[in-house]
């Protein structure tokens, strides 16, 4: 792993931490970066078909028609569905929700009885007169045609995904269409835009009540936070947590939301719990949580989500331990073929294998009937694995991001493809490069400095990473593994009341520190740490006071001899 300082404008030693970060990140307007104004948001009327869609929804409400909202199976889809349902519920009781499960895939075809073979599906009701599909199905032309003709209902699609074919069977509101400036909006943001126009038509002000869910969708779906509109929406959403279910989810995670939350809270605390439902094909739990108005029931569901996520961590660790010995490590891409790993877990397991072996990996299942392998791929370092896979010409498909995608390949082609990848992948490409913003001494880290860093990092995520620091001279006093059911977090207690935390690791990771601390010939154990700075705030019931400790979330370290 290579540590590399970001090359940018020079900073002065007497600059404040905020000014240094401003220079390093080439931010022109720091005030706008920290507090994105609403002027960065675009008029919803720039979206094609938005008037027609709103008029059709209002007509359905006034005529007492049966409305069904279809949710996609990820966090953005769940938030989008909940936004629309909660808003429309205030005007009509004739509203229902349909959805598939994560393992069933995406698209309208997954909820139509005549088109799906799966069970555990909240099917599209036959009596539906208006179907509103959120965060999905812009390209589900055949399914839209079938539903339009066989069910006799109108279809509105509110989406943000790329459109690659014409769909004359639905009225589509999608930021990818026309001249809408923000092509990086989420499904939840598109729903909010529709509700803004609904507000104007219905002479009310309700859309802003759902900005918290808009923020969750934007961050969870990895939408660019360089986009001004996205920054403004996230800023307004995380400052105003109103959804009862979301509040309970934050409470079970011991997150104080009185003054708002951060995008990091969403990425590391909220999204995993919502996604745990979908990984266990229990999407209905997450939807119920976010549309539930009874606080007692919302609390019960939030606790259940946390249990599911703990179960997910435990199972993930057990699966990795059981399959790591079966890896075919004879090529530059590690391969695991295991039909017992469920589809919803393959990506997570593949990521863990990649991390442990420090090389790209495929986690595949074998279909005997078709003689094909299907599964997940994860890359590492600078390896453009998806591009390389496509260059071989051997794969049936490679769908997803450049370093994390799904794939399919004929069994007889796998060895040939792996050999081709051996030739395409350069050895030095596997080296991970971590860029950091600033170098500081451990003794320089104060509460005030971290507070400024947290202020800068409040809205970070895709394309706007939290500032990373190379912290020199951390003196380790103790090392331990933490976790109630699964111990996968390391804590190093250092001098100056500084804690260094490392997540998702096993006991082997902490052994060098334990060994160094037990070495009687050492006067002290000193490390340099690369990571992000955070403050841990918690209420100590024994001392009956708020405790605040300084933390580094570690990505990598160097242990002095």
General description of the model:
- By secondary structure, the chain is α/β, with parallel strands linked by helices.
- The chain has 17 helices and 18 strands.
- 37% of the residues lie in helices and 22% in strands.
- The two termini are 18 Å apart.
- The model has no long low-confidence stretch (mean pLDDT 94).
Labels describing this entry:
alpha/beta; 22% strand
Helix coverage percent of residues?
A: 25-40%
Radius of gyration, whole Å:
25 Å
N-to-C span: 18 Å
Q: Assembly type of the shown chains?
A: single chain
- Quick one: biggest sheet? 5 strands, parallel
- Count of DSSP-assigned helices: 17
List segments where confidence is low: pLDDT < 50 over at least 5 consecutive residues. none
Shape: globular
Q: How much of the sequence is in beta strands?
A: 15-25%
